[in-house]
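An example makes the point: we let one protein speak, the chain in one-letter code, the fold tokenised, and here it is:
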Amino acid sequence: MLANITSGAVLGIEAYRVDVEVDLGRGMMTFSVVGLPAGAVCESRTRVKSALDNCGYGFPQRRVTVNLAPGHIRKQGTAFDLPIALGILAADGKIPPDALEDTLVVGELSLDGRVRAVRGVLPLAAHAARLGARRILVPADNGGEAAVVEGLDVRAVDHLVEAVEALAEGQSLPVASPPPDEPPELDCPLDMTDVRGQGQARRALEIAAAGGHNLLFIGPPGAGKTMLARRLPTIVPPMNFAERLDCSTIASISGLLRPDAPLVCHRPFRAPHHSVSDAALIGGGPQARPGEVSLAHHGVLFLDELPEFRRNALESLRQPLEDGEVVVARAQATLCYPARFMLVASMNPCPCGYHGHPRQACECHPIAVRTYRNRISGPLLDRFDLHVGVDPVDPAALHFAPPGEASSVIRDRVLQARARQRTRLEDTGLACNAHMRSREIAAHCALDDTSRRLLMTAMERLALSARAHDRILKVARTIADLADSPRITTGHIAEAIQYRQLDRAEP
């Protein structure tokens, strides 16, 4: 007898046909899996056989052949366990073959028949809907994320027995419910009121949040660079549903979604250690997984102690910062992952950290300072919209200075600025000023003669590139939005220029 059933790849980029053949003749029992299976798929033979035996169905005492088509693509992961088990039962006559018609099945089996969660169910469900499947059978812990996809009947199952009884007797399995559309309020113990002093850094953080700009903090140890960066999520705008779905898809592929939170609620904040590898940062590896830049999609990627990162890893950031995506090319497949994120980084001004400190002398030789700063290439520095010096806080300010504005107050101004940007960029599909291209810059960043002369003078004296020219205009447009100004004025240009001078200072 022959039965087939639709399953899916762990990455959610393909849908496969699982063909199961049970030889009706007498002979030695064999269980073969073909179709270029990886190690985890080959091991499914043991899991499936044990699950069928322990659930009381028994394994057919005949030759069983499982073909995973198409045969030229390597199959990876444990998501094929449940479809293989159901295919064997259907081929053995214990499940009506039409019970699984137009149904995609995915899930890992434990030895006792329990159905365990797998990664990548959200993109699998979306792909099943595009292929015309009317129903998808998933593990109970993956039900919430699969139910996000509209137009698909999502059924959740806890145990193999539950699935078999429902399919054999025509009963319905529990319907998975999607999470609420509105994300809960951000419950974060961090707040901008914790920051004392640092007026310029606070202002730069607000501009970065309002326009989605990249930001670099440079200052001595203990000045508050990391403290400021970790409070950025408290002032950025909330994600809309489309952005939540994008982030949830990437998190599902990476296995980071929790059963109690099947949809990402808040903007990601990723802070990898400086020892991160190129593949972990950008994406790749044996299975071409998303990297930190994709996990930070629609959110913030924070690189603390920027010069300590590997040069190759840092240089690999240049392309996703420009294109908003990462192309991972491997011999078996080429994958494109989204990577539209805000890059926030911090660094010391010199190896000892005290170059330019008002109260502590720097012991570094000028050549050592220059060598340390040269760990960050000019092209990468050019991609930071804001270069901000963070000076040490006056000791008196720590005790007597009044607390600054709360994150909620700053966030209100950021939301108003983003609303103006959405109205202006509505027809372009862009989210914020930092994403504007040459056409939008020409249309929305017009300057008067005085502002144009100021910008041209700054470019000549600071030896700024054409990329820096465009980024100054984008930052000035954001500053104008925060001031509710329809046009960019000389003051807006002047403030944007001052955020490009720090990296040009000589040690």
Q: What stands out?
A: The domain at 192-430 is CATH 3.40.50.300 (Rossmann fold). The first helix runs from residue 39 to 42. The chain is about 35% helix and 15% strand.
